[in-house]
Amino acid sequence: MITLDIETRADDKLLPIYLENISAPKNIKDPEKIEARLEAKRNEAKNNLAVDQDYSEIVCIGIKENDEPAKLVSLKELLELLPKHNKVVTFNGKSFDMPVIAKCAIKQGLELSLNFATLTKRFATDYHIDLMEQIACNSNYKSLDVYLQIYLGIKKTPIDFNSCSEDELKAHCLEDVENTYKLYQLFKNII
Question: What is the pLDDT at residue 12?
């Protein structure tokens, strides 16, 4: 089994493509208001791109193989490890982590030896267990932090994604991997 999490940021190389496609609402006619709206969208761009499957890039990948301590690996290393494990556990991995991993692999010309549908198929647990969808039971989705507080009595270390250093982001990623693993251990017998 492998537990994983990724952290992303805007791919600066793709920012011009994104900015090319922004526009102000058509009902605004005042040039000053149009420019104000466009400026606001430009300022939001980096945050939006950081969590967009197509416009983001991976900063770090944290994994935990079975009971081993969490560690950071490269995208290439992860792609080599995934087929060697019979289970992948994530939190929101089907909607975010796995699509980003697959798309970044494609952008980098790396071979993805697993079927994309296997990695992202909703509610399937034969290979990929996404704790967010399994614990929510198709109901009110909550954050990893909220589930950790409810079921394990622990709280994630706060982080400001806009101002944190790369080392802080990597530490956050490793903490998320360890916490996802703890949550999985609690729920594994009913998933």
Answer: 87
* Residues making up the chain, counted from first to last: 191
DSSP count for the chain of H helices, then E strands: 8, 5
* Superfamily of domain 2-8+60-190 in the CATH hierarchy: Ribonuclease H-like superfamily/Ribonuclease H (3.30.420.10)
Burial class (CB in 10 A: 0-12, 13-18, 19+), 169: middle
pLDDT digits (tens, 9 = 90+) for 12-37: 899 888 888 788 778 888 888 888 88
Q: For the segment 124-139, what is each residue's pLDDT rounded down to a tens digit?
A: 888 999 999 999 987 8
Residues contacting 31, CB < 8 A, separation 6+: none
Pairing of the two strands 2-10 and 88-90: parallel
Lookup result for tokens 């792609």: 79
Q: What is the pLDDT of residue 43?
A: 72
Token pair 């267990």 in the structure block, residue: 129
- Residues near 52 by Cβ (< 8 Å), separated by ≥ 6? none
pTM reported for the whole predicted model: 0.88
